[in-house]
Amino acid sequence: MVSVLAAGPVFLDVIQYGLEHAPRPGEEQWVGGGDIMAGGVANQAVACARLGLEVSLVTRVGADRAGRFVAGLLAEENISLEGTRREGIQSVTVSQVFNGDRAFTSYGTANIPQPPSDAPAPDFFLVSVGDLPDPALLHRWRDAGCTVIADAAWDPTGRWDAADLAPLASADIFVPNDAEALAYTRRASVHDAARALLELVPNVVVTRGARGVLVASRAVADLVELPAIAVEAIDTTGAGDSFTAGVVRGLAAGAPLAEAAILGQVAAAWTVQRLGGSASAPRVHDLLDWAGRSLTWAQPRPKEGAGVAGLPDPAGVITKWLTAPPARSR
């Protein structure tokens, strides 16, 4: 079984849907629905586990009642908490969805423990760039065959300091969205931004929402631009996490990065058609069933950039790589 280690803060997510307007002081507003689930890095972990990967976490889970609830939710998804610290209070986020966007209020801590220096190498390590651990540990893991995939987090300071990306030297793949890529590189186009990021990390996959995905690699001269999957999005919560999980599942089965990115797109597209984060992550049979029915590109070719010669059918990519067992060998 392919092993995935995901690092980051875990939250108990309380999600409310269908607000008519932003909350007002002194007002009680009844909404159309809601849910409670594990969030934060749990979105990524659950998405990976549902795609048939063996997942463990580097995080903190509260020792209080809310923490016990979160631990139970993760156990139901077969996610290992063996290396997780159980201490303090559980971090909680309330997410309110209205006008196609979300607002969050949170309490707790976003700090996470570091993996032990003698920890065995997983096949894949997933982490935000700001939480990348000791480079010596990552060097040992990568020598043992681990692929390190880093994503970006929104910078609340608005600085978007490129120096904050220096830890990417210890990663294999960077997965920012287009706003993050442009903000960090100060480039005018996402294509130029992707090329600039290749100076820091060997592979870059930029997610662009309804405009698809851009894949850049030092090993390939041209950028690969993929259009979006044809869906009607109702909630983007967890879409990036499902995307990364799909990429990992594809790479674990032996897919080249561009086709793994297509699997990521399909996993994310499944998620955005449903409400919630980890609860809306797809399972293998969900995506295979979709591939057998109505899975298509939103447009036949990208409108800008290098594009893809002979753009592959996303249904064919899903069928090929999800029926191949995730049995990556080192």
UniProtKB/TrEMBL annotation:
The keyword NAD does not apply. Keywords: Kinase, Transferase. The keyword Kinase applies. GO terms for molecular function: kinase activity. One of its GO terms (biological process) is phosphate-containing compound metabolic process. It holds the Pfam family PfkB. InterPro entries: Carboh/pur_kinase_PfkB_CS (IPR002173), PfkB_dom (IPR011611), Ribo/fructo_kinase (IPR002139), Ribokinase-like (IPR029056). Signal peptide: none annotated. Residues 35-282 form the Carbohydrate kinase PfkB domain. PROSITE patterns: PFKB_KINASES_2. Belongs to the carbohydrate kinase PfkB family. This is Carbohydrate kinase family protein. The lineage of its organism: Bacteria, Bacillati, Actinomycetota, Actinomycetes, Actinomycetales.
